Amino acid sequence: MKIAGIELEDPLIISSGIVPDVPSFISRVCREYRPSAITTKTFTLLPLEPHRPPTLLRFQDGCYINAIGLGNPGVSVVDSISCDCNLFISVGGKDREEIREVGKRVEKKAKLIEINLSSPNRKGYGASLATESYEIVKEIKSTVKVPVFVKLGPWDNVLEIAGKALEGGADGLSLINTLKGELVDVETFSPILSYGTGGISGKCIYPLALRVIADVYKEYEVEIIGMGGVFSYMDVLGLMSAGAKVVGLGSVIIDQGYNIINKIRKDLSIYLNKKGLKLENIIGSAVKK
Fold first, then answer.
1. Which residues contact 108 (CB under 8 A, 6 or more apart)?
2. 119 is catalytic
3. The pTM of the whole model exceeds 0.85
């Protein structure tokens, strides 16, 4: 199958924020687990320190909240990444100029660039720039030749923001990023995460991801990388039926390890063979009815 003209072995990729930004580890994950693509953590032009611990908590079965704050070693580390898997590189910044420059710097390594306009965990970055999606995409598209996707969150105005990104020239969308939330320590009555708020991910946001993807696909019929609470082959099928062409695995890897990629791949293949179905016929099928 293909997304943005990129050949993939199957629809399973790794979402941003999961694989550490260590070149040797990225290569190892590619070699041992063969995801159709690895999306890197978000890179900025210069290094960003992560927030102080705790930054990641499991608060229910399969549900997580994190506030790492886009901590990363800076875009220069991308030059050291070498792997045989398709590399989707997530880029971010404090303004459109920085994002454009980071995109330019990673183009030679990236099969696809994913602009992070949705992280809720660092003021001035990510979701703070979502309303500038048209301008940001237009600038980066004038600089790079590889496909550009925009990662958005589960907001009330997501259709509007998605439309602006597509008007700016985005080749597709990644849906959804985490949902902003908070946990409180009832002994101290203080936020548990050092940043205060954090992004909720995992099983508890799956129905939300399903609805947002369906709404966006129905409105624009754009290519979508779907993610948000995928823990099984059934979840993969659900997001694809809502309009996702490719599905990202995230919290499930934190929860169960990288071997879950192979299990979901095998289960998906068994299901399709048993039913005599093809993935291309599933995409958007729940929306088109």
1. none
2. yes
3. yes
